[in-house]
Each structure stands twice: as structure tokens, then as C-alpha cells.
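> @MW can you paste both from yesterday?
MW: sure, first one:
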Amino acid sequence: MKFFSDIRLLLLGLWLGAAVFFIGVAQTAFAVLPQRELAGAVVGKSLSLLNYSGLAIAMLLILSSLVGVANVNKIWLWVERFLLLLLGATCAAGQFVIGIWLSSVRAQMGRPIDEVAGDDPLRIQFNTLHEWSVWVLFAGMAAALLTFFIISNRKFGAAKPAKSDVYDFSKEFKI
């Protein structure tokens, strides 16, 4: 069962690493590419891949949490499942709600976002949606990190170990 848990940790760690890497890609794209529209396209495509993979991994890990749970603390198991559900929900909301809404606002603008005035209602809505997107991704990353710690600290083997006699020195000094 430890091997199965390690595979689950690997999937979660891969998604967390991809999410952290995405932050770097987003900042680099806007710093390096000559047009912000190009950078936005790169970031949008990367975020889409991150959201779809997060949704798939969350579903896979929720399903795999149903296997081999005989000697597992049920409270922590349900906390893990809730956090994985939260991860999947944040990825779904980021992709299918916020992402679609952002695309709709961008299409309504009809020109590059930098050419839209800062006090324009569409620009304000775009900025607000962008902030929501950032916070939703952060919530998903926090849920994934907490789940990673829960899975990695899971104990395997006997439900309760025998009484430890680490400080019983009478066995050490027998003559």
C-alpha cells in the first residue's frame, strides 16, 4: 500500500510543481514577449492545461482514495477527500467559469486590453476576474499542498504499535 500512496503523492507533487512553474511562465511571458496579447495567449493556454490536469488528477485521487483504506484514520481520509474535491472544484471553476467569462469579456473589448481605458467597465470586470482567477488557483494549490502532507504522513502497517520500551534500560545492563 505504501507504493500506491507514493504514486498518489507523485501525481499530486507533479501538479503542484506545474502550478508553481506556471507562475514563473506567466511572469516570464509578460516580461519577454513583445506584445501583451501574445503573452496572454501563452498564459491562457498554459492555465488551461493546468486546470484540466488538476481536474483529472483530483478525480483520479478521489477514486483511488477508495482503495485500501482499512487501517487508515477515517477522519483524515475524509479531510483528504474534501481537499481533493476542493482542488477539482477550483480547477473546474477556473477553467469553466472564470476562464470562459474572461474570454467573453476579452471578445467584447474588441481590441487589445492595453488600449482599453482603466476606468472602462469591461477593463474593470477583466481585472476583477483576473484577481478571482489568481485566488482560485491559490486555493487549489493550498488544498493540494495540504493533501500532500496528509497523504505523506499516513501510517501503514498495524493499526497501533505495541507499547514502546525505548527508555527501559533494565534490558541493557543485564549481567
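MW: second:
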Amino acid sequence: MQQTQKIFSARVVVQMLFFIVVIPFLPLLISRCWGWWEAWVYAILSILGFAISRLLVARRHPDLIAERARFMWHENAQSWDKRLSPLIGLGGGLVMLIVGLDALFGWSPKFSLPLKMLSLVILLAGYALASYALIENRFFSAVVRLQTERNHRVVSSGPYRWIRHPGYAGGLLTYLATPVFLDSCWAFLPIAWIVTLTVIRTSLEDKFLQDELIDYSDYAQRVRYRLLLGIW
């Protein structure tokens, strides 16, 4: 009980609520464009996507929820990931901040409805892929580390049959579709930052797993692509 209270402390709950609820609504809060239907759809999809995926994970891998919640206390997290992970999170917040400012000051032109619908499909595909990876992989920690106390092993089912890091791939799809759906060309700047850091993180994580996780090198031989089918 004490360990659970430590993991889900008031500070952690407030941080989670901020990133899960406040950040998706940031464009609406900044712009005060309360009739902006795309921003409402985006925020609701973001919150529902998080809630549904975590409920499914809790049913299938209840220990994974605790693993991800205690990410700040893992002593064996890789030092490079302790720097990269917060920077990627910061980039996500900057995307929403710039989208809101863009709408407030009218910096970018509006995208056509067909392009918005296409971007919405890509958004949904990204959420679905990232959630599928999370639900399928019991070891999908929030930080890169070898989870020896959880009998860490290679997961090669579900989306891991096609690419080695489908969670990151799904996240990138959602980011890349966001500027079009929310009419913000300027949001591509922090997204370029996120894409760069994610590629670096994927490369470092993949090398770490090949060096440290039993059978991962064999898995990497079978599943060639890390992030993008047919390319890398």
C-alpha cells in the first residue's frame, strides 16, 4: 500500500492530469476559439486514446501501469534517455503551444477539408498503432532500461512482427498529422525536433537492447526495420 501511494503520489497525479488533460486543450485555452471543432476533436481523441489504452493495459498487464508510473524512480534507466525523454515531452508541449498561438494570431493559412480528413485518419492510425504496441508489450516502460526484476524478454507479437519500435512509429504519425488537422504550419518546427530526437532515441534503444537483452539480436535479424517499413 505504501509503495502504491508513493507511485501515485499527489505530485504524480497532478503531473499526469496536466499532460493528459490540460496540454491537449492548450490550443483552445490560448486561442479562446471555442467554436474550433478540430481542436475539440483533437483534445477529446487524445484524452480518450490515453484512457482507453490504459484501461486495456490494466486488464492485460496491470504491472505495466505501475512500471510506467514509477519512471522517475528507476535507478537503472539509461543516462541518455533521462535527457532525451524529457526533451521529447517538452517538444510535445511546444507543439500545442504553437498551435494555440498560431490560431490566436492567424499566422498560418487554413488547410482544405479533404486534407484535414486525411490527417484525421493518420491521427487515428497513429493512436491505434501506439496503443496496440503498448497493450501487446508488457515491458513497454516509459524509460529505457533492462527490467530484470520483471523477467524482461523479447516481444515479437502484434505490431512487433513488422517493426521493432511500433510505439514510437505510432507517436510520430500522430505528431506529423497534427499541424494539418489544426491548421498550423509553424507546428512543424517543434515536430521536426521531436522526429529527430525520436530517431536518435530509437537508434540508441535498439543498440542497448541488442547488447543487453537476450535474443533481441536474433529478433532484429528477423524484423529488419526499426521505425519505418521499407526504409529504416
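> thanks! The chain has one domain: 2-144+152-222.
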